[in-house]
């Protein structure tokens, strides 16, 4: 018999427990990206293809499949590991406005499971010049792990439904795309602007809330 658990070190995280796990018989499978290797494709597929090159240039949409690991150590034994999954990257025509649609999948940590349930989140890749990198490395060091890749996920929880409605409209426009319809570009740009405005309002509310919390301290 082979036993498995997605998060053993979330409950008990010390060297003695890890050593015990390694000598158990029957074998105890440690969590890693490979224990969740069967990751399905994203359920939200924006139907764009090579023939829409002009359309893509006009509204500056980028799309690609991404596999991310949150803060995995060199032995792939990290409970912060995010299961590899395919996602669609919709980059709106504005700074700091990358929205992702995530598929249903069984994640091996609570944070990514919550993000997945929200269906819409904002992702930021970190690098050596980003302060978030040090924050993630510190979190990894606290768990005796070596960070090899860092990804920050920010959730948009209040306006998800509105954003999804706008994206659905955008999908319908793409499906009904008429080369002779000169209004298509304007309609898409208006939707992109509407989504960006909703995100901006959400960000301002979050900032205001944080300031109030600091003032109350």
TrEMBL record:
Per UniProt, the ranges with Basic and acidic residues bias are 130-143
Q: Where is this region: Disordered?
A: 121-143
* Top-level taxon of origin: Eukaryota
Q: Which SUPFAM superfamilies match?
A: Hermes dimerisation domain, PspA lactotransferrin-binding region
Designated name of the protein: Uncharacterized protein
- Source organism of this protein record: Diabrotica balteata
């Amino acid at each position: 018999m082979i036993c498995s658990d997605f998060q053993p070190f979330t409950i008990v995280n010390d060297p003695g427990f890890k050593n015990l796990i390694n000598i158990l018989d029957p074998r105890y499978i440690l969590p890693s990206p490979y224990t969740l290797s069967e990751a399905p494709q994203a359920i939200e597929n924006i139907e764009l293809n090579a023939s829409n090159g002009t359309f893509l240039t006009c509204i500056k949409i980028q799309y690609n499949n991404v596999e991310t690991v949150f803060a995995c150590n060199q032995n792939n034994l990290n409970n912060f590991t995010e299961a590899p999954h395919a996602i669609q990257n919709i980059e709106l025509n504005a700074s700091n406005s990358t929205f992702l649609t995530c598929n249903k999948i069984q994640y091996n940590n609570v944070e990514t499971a919550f993000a997945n349930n929200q269906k819409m989140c904002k992702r930021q890749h970190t690098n050596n010049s980003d302060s978030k990198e040090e924050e993630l490395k510190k979190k990894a060091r606290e768990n005796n792990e070596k960070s090899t890749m860092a990804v920050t996920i920010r959730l948009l929880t209040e306006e998800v439904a509105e954003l999804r409605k706008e994206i659905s409209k955008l999908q319908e426009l793409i499906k009904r795309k008429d080369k002779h319809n000169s209004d298509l570009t304007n309609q898409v740009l208006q939707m992109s602007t509407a989504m960006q405005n909703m995100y901006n309002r959400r960000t301002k509310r979050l900032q205001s809330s944080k300031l109030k919390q600091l003032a109350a301290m």
